[in-house]
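>> received
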Amino acid sequence: MKPMRLHHVGIIMTSMERAETFLEQFGLEKDYMEYVEAYHAHCLFTKFSEQESPVELIIPTEGILTQFNNGKGGIHHIAFEVEDVEAARREFTEKGMEMLETKAVEGAGGIIVNFLRPRYGLGVLVEFVEQVK
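>> returned
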């Protein structure tokens, strides 16, 4: 499995107001936002061109993500687009590495995702993304 491209960088925001301030401060525009039930979070993606990758602002409503970085938020993960998330999961588990989920979950914007646990990403939480829509 070779990543096709950087899909996005995920940043946890502690509130929608902070997300809006971040967008304004850096001149970013909202493309779309969806609620991802599996992670209890609103996921806001910025507009981007063909040569760019979006930023994902994650606004958790409950659960473990609200505690990220002692509740302060911050850079959470990088995401690589792959052709087949399940093939990526199999490849890593065959090497003795653990994924966050036992099978891919639905993400925002017509994608399915799974995460390689940070201990196997050399301290980085790596998400694998497959476009399904």
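>> The CA atoms of residues 72 and 81 lie 27 Å apart.
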